[in-house]
């Protein structure tokens, strides 16, 4: 038998590494991000203002004495300004999701992670939370000093104030989110008496809690480890995609120097190795190491580097938007833009445009009347005293406008077919009215078994609002 005992080691042999404390996850190093100003920072804050004015403002807009935008789950109706959408309109939601996907593909193929850097909720709310943090705790140096300071009354007050403001903002965000699905007026009344329904309270706390967690505490961890887009973005890039790049040929070798000295005279590149590009990065990467999946494309490093280049009286653009081919072949902006139109972007753009046109056409031609017909299966066919054959139908007439409407119901397809009783249906605004209709035909009008029949439903105040629905009429054998 072979022995399972390990061989003894000689005194001079190296000890095997101790892997008992290895971990699959890197220890998190807290980032204190330095604020930066510049063109791209202005664009980011412009998107912050635009997206948040829309998000927080839309529930307060009134349209036809109701919320302009309300996805009323209880009533199963979606109100979007003058449109009322029903569960049957899920087709439009599918088109919107397809448009969103292809828009992401299209803009990513052109200029990388524009969505992540400027409009993603994680980026937007992180910017807001960092702004609150800076106003309460101070700039980057002050915050780092506060981190190292022992606990004191002042530190407790500053930290407590920051967390309290974060919590209030997060709760207001959760409240606004729920206001898109439950009428704002009812929510405000519930807030005064704190009588929220269980699901309303759950979603306020759930959405607000995750806003606080993601934007206040996790921050870059969400982008680096939780967001799937960071993992598959690479397959959407190609050598002609605009991404944030460091011009290594121009910047290396990096090193410090005095202002006004020609770096080439000292055998150095334009990079002064100040590290500010790393300090302003919200994910804490060094763009000089090349493109990394953690880069969200916010361009904060471009603004920071341009300011340093201005101080050193060097040309801007050491860190800039460029492409892999442009760096290799020393293209200018004209050549870069000429390569924007390539097969990938043309295909994405064509599909995106087609779906946008389809959505616009569908909304423009959308009927404000919908009719569903169900034939009564309890009594398939009845012979009346006068010899005529009767079938009974149940009509669901859906008025998709926000005004009451009257509809005229007619029947056709079989000779002599008539509606017994009234042929008029009154439907309240944005509701569905069920009505039972008896249709009688002479026995000679059709063959035994199923015969084609159709209902014409037309608005009495607008002849263009009309629907024809086909069904069957059963004749006895």
TrEMBL record:
<keyword id="KW-1133">Transmembrane helix</keyword>
<feature type="transmembrane region" description="Helical">
    <location>
        <begin position="90"/>
        <end position="111"/>
    </location>
</feature>
<keyword id="KW-0479">Metal-binding</keyword>
<dbReference type="GO" id="GO:0005886">
    <property type="term" value="C:plasma membrane"/>
</dbReference>
<dbReference type="Pfam" id="PF13746">
    <property type="entry name" value="Fer4_18"/>
</dbReference>
<dbReference type="GO" id="GO:0051539">
    <property type="term" value="F:4 iron, 4 sulfur cluster binding"/>
</dbReference>
<dbReference type="InterPro" id="IPR013783">
    <property type="entry name" value="Ig-like_fold"/>
</dbReference>
<keyword id="KW-0411">Iron-sulfur</keyword>
<dbReference type="Pfam" id="PF12801">
    <property type="entry name" value="Fer4_5"/>
</dbReference>
<dbReference type="Pfam" id="PF11614">
    <property type="entry name" value="FixG_C"/>
</dbReference>
<feature type="transmembrane region" description="Helical">
    <location>
        <begin position="43"/>
        <end position="63"/>
    </location>
</feature>
<dbReference type="InterPro" id="IPR017896">
    <property type="entry name" value="4Fe4S_Fe-S-bd"/>
</dbReference>
<dbReference type="InterPro" id="IPR017900">
    <property type="entry name" value="4Fe4S_Fe_S_CS"/>
</dbReference>
<feature type="domain" description="4Fe-4S ferredoxin-type">
    <location>
        <begin position="261"/>
        <end position="290"/>
    </location>
</feature>
<keyword id="KW-0004">4Fe-4S</keyword>
<feature type="transmembrane region" description="Helical">
    <location>
        <begin position="346"/>
        <end position="364"/>
    </location>
</feature>
<protein>
    <submittedName>
        <fullName>Cytochrome c oxidase accessory protein CcoG</fullName>
    </submittedName>
</protein>
<dbReference type="GO" id="GO:0046872">
    <property type="term" value="F:metal ion binding"/>
</dbReference>
<keyword id="KW-0812">Transmembrane</keyword>
<feature type="region of interest" description="Disordered">
    <location>
        <begin position="1"/>
        <end position="20"/>
    </location>
</feature>
<keyword id="KW-0408">Iron</keyword>
<feature type="transmembrane region" description="Helical">
    <location>
        <begin position="163"/>
        <end position="181"/>
    </location>
</feature>
<dbReference type="InterPro" id="IPR014116">
    <property type="entry name" value="Cyt_c_oxidase_cbb3_FixG"/>
</dbReference>
<keyword id="KW-0813">Transport</keyword>
<dbReference type="InterPro" id="IPR051684">
    <property type="entry name" value="Electron_Trans/Redox"/>
</dbReference>
<feature type="transmembrane region" description="Helical">
    <location>
        <begin position="201"/>
        <end position="218"/>
    </location>
</feature>
<keyword id="KW-0472">Membrane</keyword>
<keyword id="KW-0249">Electron transport</keyword>
<dbReference type="InterPro" id="IPR032879">
    <property type="entry name" value="FixG_C"/>
</dbReference>
């Amino acid at each position: 038998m072979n022995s399972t005992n390990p061989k003894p080691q000689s005194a001079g042999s190296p000890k095997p590494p101790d892997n008992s404390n290895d971990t699959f996850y890197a220890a998190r190093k807290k980032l204190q991000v330095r604020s930066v100003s510049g063109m791209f920072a202005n664009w980011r804050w412009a998107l912050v203002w635009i997206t948040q004015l829309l998000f927080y403002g839309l529930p307060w807009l009134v349209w036809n004495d109701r919320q302009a935008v309300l996805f009323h789950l209880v009533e199963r109706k979606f109100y979007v300004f003058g449109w009322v959408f029903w569960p049957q309109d899920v087709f439009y939601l599918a088109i919107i999701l397809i448009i969103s996907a292809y828009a992401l593909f299209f803009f990513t193929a052109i200029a990388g992670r524009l969505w992540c850097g400027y409009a993603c909720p994680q980026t937007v709310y992180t910017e807001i939370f960092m702004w609150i943090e800076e106003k309460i705790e101070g700039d980057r140096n002050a915050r780092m000093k506060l981190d190292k300071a022992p606990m004191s009354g002042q530190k407790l007050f500053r930290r407590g104030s920051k967390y309290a403001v974060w919590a209030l903002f997060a709760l207001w965000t959760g409240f606004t989110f729920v206001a898109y699905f439950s009428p704002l007026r009812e929510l405000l009344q519930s807030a005064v008496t704190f009588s929220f329904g269980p699901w309303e309270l759950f979603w306020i706390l759930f959405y607000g809690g995750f806003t606080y967690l993601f934007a206040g505490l996790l921050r870059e961890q969400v982008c680096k480890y939780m967001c799937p887009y960071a993992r598959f973005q690479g397959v959407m890039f190609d050598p002609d995609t605009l991404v944030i790049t460091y011009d290594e040929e121009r910047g290396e070798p990096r090193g410090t120097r005095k202002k006004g000295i020609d770096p080439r005279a000292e055998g150095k590149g334009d990079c002064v190795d100040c590290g500010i590009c790393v300090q302003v990065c919200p994910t804490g990467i060094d763009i000089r190491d090349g493109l990394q999946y953690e880069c969200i494309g916010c361009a904060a490093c471009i603004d920071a580097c341009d300011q340093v280049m201005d101080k050193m009286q060097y040309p801007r653009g050491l860190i800039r938007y460029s492409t892999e081919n442009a760096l290799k072949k020393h293209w200018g902006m004209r050549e870069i833009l000429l390569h924007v139109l390539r097969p990938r972007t043309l295909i994405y753009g064509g599909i995106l445009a087609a779906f946008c046109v389809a959505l616009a056409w569908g909304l423009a031609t959308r009927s404000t009347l919908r009719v569903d017909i169900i034939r009564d299966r309890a009594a398939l066919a009845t012979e009346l005293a006068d010899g005529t054959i009767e079938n009974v139908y149940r009509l669901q007439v859906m008025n998709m406008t926000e005004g009451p409407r009257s509809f005229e119901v007619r029947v056709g397809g079989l000779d002599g077919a008539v509606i017994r009783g009234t042929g008029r249906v009154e439907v309240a605004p944005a509701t569905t009215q069920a009505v039972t209709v008896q249709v009688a035909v002479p026995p000679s009008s059709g063959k035994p078994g199923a015969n084609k029949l159709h209902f014409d439903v037309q608005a009495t105040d607008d002849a263009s609002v009309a629907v024809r629905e086909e069904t069957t009429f059963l004749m006895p054998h």
